[in-house]
Specification:
Elements lengths: L21 E4 L2 E6 L2 E6 L8 E5 L6 E4 L3 E3 L1 H9 L3 E5 L6 E3 L9 H11 L4 H14 L8 H22 L19 H24 L15 H8 L2 H18 L5 H16 L1 H12 L10
Parallel strand pairs: 1-5, 2-6, 5-7
Antiparallel strand pairs: 2-3, 3-4, 7-8
Helix pairs in contact: 3-4, 4-7, 5-6, 5-7, 5-8, 5-9, 7-8
Length: 295
Amino acid sequence: MVLKGRLGLETARIPHADRHGLLWLSRGTLFVEDGTLRFQCAGSAELAPGDYAIPFQTVSMILLGPGTTVSHDVLRLAARHGTGLAAVGDDGVRLYTAPPLGPDDSRLARAHARAWADADGARLSIARRLYAWRLGEVLPHRDIEVLRGIEGARMKETYRLLAERHGVRWQGRRYDRAAPTAADPPNQAINHAASAVEAAAGIAVAATAAIPQLGFIHEDSANAFVLDVADLFRDRVTLPVAFQAVKRAEAEPAVPLERHVRRLAGRVFRQDRVIDAMIGRIKELFDADDRRGDA
């Protein structure tokens, strides 16, 4: 016998399938007044100064950017109605915390767990689908190490071509975790851009309630699946942002390279709706549809 939810705590929440996704707030105070959320905004690029009522029951997740303070009652009310809260950097280039979203059911999480547990069947199929999306073709190989080798070889050429396209001198991918600042500017920029894209992927994984630890290509990291999702956007987001930032830093050396990367990444996230695309990819990966039956 399966008991739905927790006894005595069933509510009339609006299903996440009928909500409007993500709401971004920054530079203000989020608090509760008369049973609803209000946001006193000091003014930002997206929102004029003022006092706003927040329709928290009609969004799936509220992303709290820099300069935001939150009252204890906000956490209580959001949890009561299944609205997620996450502290993020500007435009989602960092993810500092993300409590579980707690969607209406566990379909996607169960599909994720089932696929991951079937090491020789569904897990390999998911890995092959991820590689197909990245490489633009379905490879016939069924050995994960062979797939990793093919992807690695192609990435070397991708680095070279994108660096050439952006006019950046490229001497190969080099990164020493013990001395990250010892790398040349292109490699440092790639590291910063990768951190930004991983933050966006972390938001997408939290928003879908997928399981971050259960990766299909990456394995050891506690954010293995986040890295899988982030890698889908390496060619079209991570590397172009990194190489553009290097050129910006050459023109404006007074601004730190990491700041150039964050600004460019945030702009791309907004313009290309990168996090929305990541959420769509996660659902497609597990053939999950909020309005369908069990996955």
